[in-house]
Amino acid sequence: MKIRMYNVGYGDCFCLRDRKSNLLVDFGTSNRLIGGRPRREVFDEIISDLSTIEDKDLLLTHFHLDHLSGLLYMMRSKNPQEFGCIYLPDLFSQNEMADTLSLLLLTDLLKDFYLPSKQVSLYALVEALCRRPQKVGLLRRGTVFEGKYQALWPDVEQISGRIGGMVREIQKRYAESWYRLTDYAENLRRVVYSMTEEGRGEAEEWGPSRAAQLEREFLELRQSIGFEQMLHFVEEQKFPLRELKNEISVVFQNAEDGEWNLLFTGDASASCMKRITGNYDGKFPLYQHYWCIKVPHHGTHSHYYDFSSYSPENLLISNGVYYSNSRKKEKACRVSASYSGLFYIPGATMYCSDSACCEGGRNGCTCKEKDIITPHCYRDI
């Protein structure tokens, strides 16, 4: 078993390799420059490295561009890589999931972008799948995939309960605009579901013409006065929509306890990790020991979780300098000091993309056992 951890700055990209299968987990970044290099150059190097693997699948933990932008770049290239299957969080298997998808679309639309294929990440993924259809697998708590991994999150029922209040508030004030948005989200849902094993029987048109139609519908929706008013209301109410994107993030571990236990956490929040580690439904406990744990959300303090009780041999933190006009936001995106120095987990090796973005390493790295990837493209664990 080997994990190849790519240096994508403030983003995620890992490849889980063994003799039987290869799984790419996320591929994206928020940075335009990674170690002084244009991200396109870094993406091309990673794609070239991945081209040496004949059989591979991909797992997209959620729909933030720092996990998705490299995949979109790859799918739009002249010679895109083919995956046996693309795994996504299960937000597509049931009609009522259009409500969750609608809220995710609103998250992107609050950025005030009018060209969906440029920045609206959920739309951009569906548009790319329309142009280059792929087999899709949907993951929810309990799903076993690749014959050896098990999803611990998302829990569809828990997410549905979480969004109910927000949906009711929006529906009550902007019923017409909300129903137009959910109709559009339902179209996206059907496209993705028709690419799954379970949804094969549902006739859905794919291809460039379908992608163009979805874009036209999006622009008509986005430019309507009622929709603008709904967006302003959502922004004023400060609904936790960005946090919702992290709440649906796939978390997974090995399906069976063993020597090479992995725990990948996507961008799961601390409250979400607390539910998972507490085995809230009594069905899927975590193991006592892990070979590798990928810490949540680039190691930031807002998503910090103490994994010391699981005696991890390796902790993986994919982070890089986050550039913003806000110093407060830049600081919030740095690696938490709680992962280093006095809080360092004895016996664990820290694998970090870059040490220049760590709150615990302002005067040099304080971790006893560490491996910093930059300026290299990747490190094998």
From TrEMBL:
Domain of life of the organism encoding this protein: Bacteria
Pfam families, sorted: Lactamase_B
Record organism: Candidatus Blautia gallistercoris
Protein name: MBL fold metallo-hydrolase
Positions of the Metallo-beta-lactamase domain: 8-96
Signal peptide interval: none
